[in-house]
Amino acid sequence: MIHGGEVVAKMLKEEGVEKVFGIIDGTYFGFYSNLRKYGIEIITPRHETSAVHMAGTYARMTGKLGVCMASNGPGVANALPGVAVENAEGNRVLLITSKRRLQISQPDRGGTYQWFDQV
């Protein structure tokens, strides 16, 4: 049975993506293993904004799609400044984010910022 992480990794490979930039998060383990399966290198910066700018530079220098990842909640919030800049510069960047499974995130833990609607 194929799952979403493999579908996305395969699509990225078919798009010609060779590198993905992002901070390791537990919600991505299935995706990470499939990136390796398809020969896509994972590069881990120290901050989500850096991941977006690295993806933007990769896109600008190679002409390929730049791909970055951020975890839900604060990871997405940290990535947004980079997304705004790379969009303004016209660089092709795809930001992949995650969402916690419902049984993990419910009942709501009193408004923690891991759980805001990021769409």
Let me know the number of strands.
4
Radius of gyration: 14 Å
CATH topology: Rossmann fold
- CATH superfamily heading: Thiamin diphosphate (ThDP)-binding fold, Pyr/PP domains
Mean pLDDT: 86
Give the strand order of the largest sheet, numbering strands 1, 2, ... along the chain. Answer: 2-1-3-4
Q: How many domains comprise the coordinates?
A: 1
Count of individual helical segments: 5
Under the CATH scheme, which class?
Answer: Alpha Beta
- What proportion of the residues is helical, as a percent range? 40-55%
Shape: globular
Architecture (CATH level 2) name? 3-Layer(aba) Sandwich
Q: DSSP strand (E) fraction?
A: 5-15%
The biggest beta sheet reads: 4 strands, parallel
Query: Distance between the terminal alpha carbons, to the nearest Å?
Result: 28 Å
Output the structural class. Answer: alpha/beta
Mind explaining what this structure looks like?
The model has no long low-confidence stretch (mean pLDDT 86). The protein has helices at residues 4-15, 29-37, 48-62, 74-88, 102-105, and strands spanning 19-22, 41-43, 66-70, 93-97. It is globular, with a radius of gyration of 14 Å. By secondary structure, the protein is an alpha/beta fold. 46% of the residues lie in helices and 14% in strands. Helix 3 (48-62) runs parallel beside helix 4 (74-88). It starts with a helix and ends in a 14-residue tail after the last helix. It has a single domain (4-115), classed as Thiamin diphosphate (ThDP)-binding fold, Pyr/PP domains (Rossmann fold), CATH 3.40.50.970. A 4-stranded parallel β-sheet has the order 2-1-3-4.
